[in-house]
């Protein structure tokens, strides 16, 4: 976070330090009702655990408003209340620091890279047609890649898409995934793995039996290796794996990705973001139905290529995708076409003949992609997703949908294009520089809600969404991959409520310009947050809807 920009974490650290306690005593408020009275609270129960009778020394209370720091919010007052110790922020100054001119660019991915993660999605190797459960793991891996890259992490996506197969549904969903057919280096890697297999004490050669669909090169005893190494978290049914050419190709692709990772100082990796201290971490993003097969591949790679990279393998497992009342198994392409038809019908119902214009084709395509991405990503990856294909929740009205988010993003675009036309027509003067704006005009409850709950914590929301904390034991990890979708849905709801209640572009009277300009500066920052968050989902902002 750049110097001068306040942050939630830094403010909470300063508040805890002011009470002489390193523990987390304070919480940030987020509900509109509580924000009318306080912005941060040290609850009475937490205070009672560290101060006799829950009474904080008066000198500590009086010192809180004087807290200062480059990333600490300006504090106005601290007082004892029945709920605990309550703090209010000096709001005009907070608006100024968050919406005013930036002191300098923050240190981001454009600076130093902080390691490499290989995200492996076995669903893209499925010989059968892709199904919704495959889409879930692919979309999750791509979203996670965008989040990690935004934090300066180098990411490799595996496997490359084979050019011999049609990937139309991925293109329609605007999934950005590398493609390629391998080359001599991949052939060399497969040969090296075969040689390692021949030297492996856990492996035994196999003869090709009649009627076998694919040549079995060797059989490897995985269970004995897992027991000898004391590996935790693996399925107890892992036993003998029949190794084929395709198995070795999968490992070779992973090895190629590891070799492409830039060499970096392992100690530079943020421990909170990566599942190991290796300079290259491998995360298998897999649906629960393929977890066993991926564990087999994991152990085989450890056997054939022992090293820090194979020891760093972790598994991010997606829960099942249940389709209600399917007349037959539904493919990913059918799922996309069904949602697209439903989005078209919902748009015609809302906008009439206008939605049937050719210019709306791109809009409906984008709304469909948004609807599917939010349907797949707004649920915690460990949980089951239920797709009701008959009674669809896909609409332009539902506040929990991707279409609702895109609709509110388009409303912001319309607001600023309307303002720009009015400036060109001489109705309003141009928006002044941020340093000349009067942010004390921002007194509406919804304005503080937008700043305090969304603009302020947004950089930290992205950081938390990109974290891959190491498991306490075993190989499974969890990630907060639903965070961005939920953040955007809640932002859309609060923005929509504010926008429906407050008239932004008022009458062109000079005495009203200060408030209008301050509001435009605030909503311009809200628009930027929408755009940045949508970019992690590969969703372009809509200029109209």
From TrEMBL:
<dbReference type="InterPro" id="IPR037380">
    <property type="entry name" value="DALRD3"/>
</dbReference>
<dbReference type="GO" id="GO:0004814">
    <property type="term" value="F:arginine-tRNA ligase activity"/>
</dbReference>
<dbReference type="InterPro" id="IPR014729">
    <property type="entry name" value="Rossmann-like_a/b/a_fold"/>
</dbReference>
<dbReference type="GO" id="GO:0005524">
    <property type="term" value="F:ATP binding"/>
</dbReference>
<feature type="domain" description="DALR anticodon binding">
    <location>
        <begin position="405"/>
        <end position="545"/>
    </location>
</feature>
<dbReference type="GO" id="GO:0000049">
    <property type="term" value="F:tRNA binding"/>
</dbReference>
<dbReference type="InterPro" id="IPR009080">
    <property type="entry name" value="tRNAsynth_Ia_anticodon-bd"/>
</dbReference>
<dbReference type="InterPro" id="IPR008909">
    <property type="entry name" value="DALR_anticod-bd"/>
</dbReference>
<dbReference type="GO" id="GO:0106217">
    <property type="term" value="P:tRNA C3-cytosine methylation"/>
</dbReference>
<protein>
    <submittedName>
        <fullName>DALD3 protein</fullName>
    </submittedName>
</protein>
<dbReference type="Pfam" id="PF05746">
    <property type="entry name" value="DALR_1"/>
</dbReference>
<dbReference type="GO" id="GO:0006420">
    <property type="term" value="P:arginyl-tRNA aminoacylation"/>
</dbReference>
């Amino acid at each position: 976070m750049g110097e001068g920009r306040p942050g939630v974490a830094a403010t909470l650290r300063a508040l805890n330090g002011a009470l002489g306690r390193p523990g987390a005593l304070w919480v940030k408020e987020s509900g509109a009702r509580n924000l009318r009275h306080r912005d941060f609270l040290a609850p009475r129960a937490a205070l009672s655990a560290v101060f006799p009778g829950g009474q904080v020394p008066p000198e500590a209370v009086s010192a809180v408003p004087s807290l200062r720091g480059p990333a600490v919010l300006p504090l106005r007052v601290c007082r004892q209340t029945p709920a605990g110790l309550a703090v209010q922020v000096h709001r005009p100054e907070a608006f100024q620091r968050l919406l005013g001119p930036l002191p300098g660019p923050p240190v981001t991915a454009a600076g130093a890279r902080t390691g490499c993660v290989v995200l492996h999605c076995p669903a893209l190797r499925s010989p059968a047609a892709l199904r919704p459960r495959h889409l879930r793991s692919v979309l999750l891996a791509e979203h996670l890649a965008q989040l990690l890259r935004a934090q300066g992490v180098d990411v490799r996506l595996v496997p490359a898409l084979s050019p011999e197969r049609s990937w139309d549904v991925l293109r329609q969903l605007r999934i950005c995934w590398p493609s390629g057919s391998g080359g001599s280096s991949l052939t060399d890697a497969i040969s090296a793995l075969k040689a390692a297999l021949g030297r492996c004490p856990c492996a035994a050669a196999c003869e090709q039996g009649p009627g076998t669909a694919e040549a079995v090169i060797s059989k490897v005893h995985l269970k004995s290796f897992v027991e000898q190494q004391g590996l935790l978290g693996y399925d107890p049914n892992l036993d003998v794996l029949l190794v084929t050419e395709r198995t070795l190709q999968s490992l070779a692709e992973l090895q190629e990705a590891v070799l492409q990772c830039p060499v970096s100082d392992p100690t530079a990796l943020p421990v909170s973001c990566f599942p190991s201290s290796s300079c290259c971490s491998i995360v298998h993003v897999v649906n629960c139905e393929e977890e066993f097969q991926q564990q087999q591949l994991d152990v085989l790679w450890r056997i054939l290529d022992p090293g820090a990279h194979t020891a760093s393998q972790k598994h991010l497992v997606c829960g099942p995708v249940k389709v209600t009342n399917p007349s037959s198994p539904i493919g990913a392409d059918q799922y996309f076409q069904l949602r697209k038809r439903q989005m078209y019908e919902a748009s015609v119902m809302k906008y009439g003949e206008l939605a049937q214009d050719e210019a709306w084709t791109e809009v409906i395509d984008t709304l469909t992609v948004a609807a599917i991405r939010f349907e797949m990503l707004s649920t915690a990856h460990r949980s089951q997703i239920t797709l009701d294909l008959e009674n669809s929740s896909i609409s332009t009205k539902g506040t929990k949908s991707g279409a609702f988010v895109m609709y509110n993003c388009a409303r912001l675009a319309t607001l600023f294009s309307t303002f720009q036309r009015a400036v060109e027509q001489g109705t309003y003067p141009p928006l002044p520089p941020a340093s000349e704006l009067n942010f004390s005009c921002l007194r509406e409850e919804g304005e503080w809600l937008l700043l305090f709950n969304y603009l302020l914590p947004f950089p930290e929301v992205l950081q938390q969404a990109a974290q891959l904390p190491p498991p306490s034991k075993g190989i499974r990890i969890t990630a907060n991959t639903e965070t961005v979708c939920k953040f955007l849905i809640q932002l859309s709801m609060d923005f929509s409520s504010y926008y429906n209640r407050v008239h932004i572009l008022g009458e062109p009277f000079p005495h009203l310009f200060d408030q209008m300009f301050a509001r435009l500066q605030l909503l311009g920052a809200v628009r930027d947050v929408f755009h940045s968050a949508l970019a992690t989902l590969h969703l372009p902002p809509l200029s109209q809807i």
